[in-house]
Design a protein that fits this description.
The structure holds two protein chains of two kinds. In chain A, 37% of the residues lie in helices and 26% in strands. By secondary structure, chain A is of the alpha/beta class. Chain A starts with a strand and ends in a 15-residue tail after the last helix. In chain B, helix 4 (98-112) packs across helix 6 (131-158) and helix 8 packs antiparallel against helix 10 (237-264). Chain B is elongated and about 75 Å long. Chain A: GO terms for molecular function: ATP binding; ATP hydrolysis activity.
Chain lengths: 265, 273
Amino acid sequence: MSVLTISNLTIKHREETLVQNIRLSINEGDWLALVGESGSGKSVTSSSIGGLLPRELIISSGSIHLGGVNLSSLKEKEWRTYRGKAISYIFQDYQGAFTPFMSIGAQFDEMLKTHLNDSKQLRKSRALECLNNVNLPAERVYKSYPFQLSGGQLQRAAIAMATILKPKLLIADEPTTALDSITAAHVLQLLAEQQKQTNCAVLFITHDLRHVRKFANKMAVMRKGEIVESGMTTAVLKHPKHAYTKALIAAIPSLKQTKERLVTI
Amino acid sequence: MINRLRTTNSVILLMGLFLIAIIIAPFIAPFDPNQVNMANRLKPVSLEHFLGTDHLGRDVFSRILAGAQTTVGTSFLVLAISLLLGVPIGLVSGYIGGRLDRILMRVVDAFMAFPDYIAAIILSGLLGPGIFNLIFAIVMVKWVGYARLARSTVLTEKQKDYILIAKVNGVGSMNILRRHMIPHVLGNVMVLATLDAGKIILMIASLSYIGLGAQPPTPEWGAMLNEAKAFFYNAPHLMLIPGLAIMVIVLIFNLFGDYLRDYYDVKNQNGGR
């Protein structure tokens, strides 16, 4: 069943078209990777799903449907019930993911209080369970302030927070770019586990084709605001059709031949 | 010496001492600050009257103590009202943005276009002399600074991911402002407020000196200076003492403000400059 359907989405800033005719559909349990160079419109697309576009950027045509709801027609107040509960985000900058002067626990609590009518104890035990699920020392992290945790811990806590309400769609906007590659692999592994448990759809924005190959079952390639190619990951990676996709794949340095110079795109 | 004051904790000590002095002033004053004694006028410094007596025979030491309450109390009141007015306006303006922001900021610009002393003199001149009109006039020139500062802090904070995440978690705007933004804003605002306290004290004293603020016989340092100027040749201490009091208190507040600024400045943890 399709969780998210984006049809013919065009986003403009004044006269300039940033994103054109985007068509995407993500099913339950899918992990869709959106790849492409910087400035290709990946993040603009992902922000538009959560209604987070800056005021100056306008959706000029097309629609975004989540389940049966047309998100692009929601009012600011109606958004609140969807954000966090139906759609959640993980961002690149783990250090900025939590408000610095509030403990992690307080921020979990605030989110749970917004969406649920649970008692205080129940909220806490939910948060602790969720932190436990991402292999964090739950009690300690719950009491900690963001600066007391490491980057990997923070990003795992961010994943816990993003999945605690079992959203239908999880948008991960370059979640590992700021982490070292070992921590990144751990974090993505965790994300994959969380996805299996909640069966949510993941929209994964990245630059790293290795992660795409390992985790995503579908992928879409963006360039200059348009999706140039999309399909099953294995098919796209093995038999790229578009010249840009071929160039992207050719740019991955091979471990076997190191003599040639890297290809510039 | 000033550098040493800055780097040690003596700033806090001075500030604390001064605040205690203000609170217990009525209990340690040897005389009623308004008690007239014409037989004993313009007396120099003596054991009975530590700082002499003024042209009506009132004890200057008692008047200085009582004046500290008037001057500093008034300046705190001015600060509090300016904060309560400026900070919410800045918060709302920065957070909501758009047309509301433009309108509010043009109002702020209009207030800022006048030099603060001139505006305060004109306003309290129009309203007539008196301590409450003075408070109103100074608040009118001071609140804009806090509105601007609160707004600019909100604008920087608004860009941060954690505000975005609070938003995507479904937290309402009021809660985001209250729980995720205000602590940041207050830190900055408190530093500006302490740095401003000295200026406001000076302003109150200045306006009282030219007769717009506290009216006789209210003991107030600026007004005391004003009353004393006719007797400068015979009793110079009448002008020197309130003048020195103003200087010392403004210095203490400025040092305290500097100290707070350094304390909150993460980039400058060593306090070096």
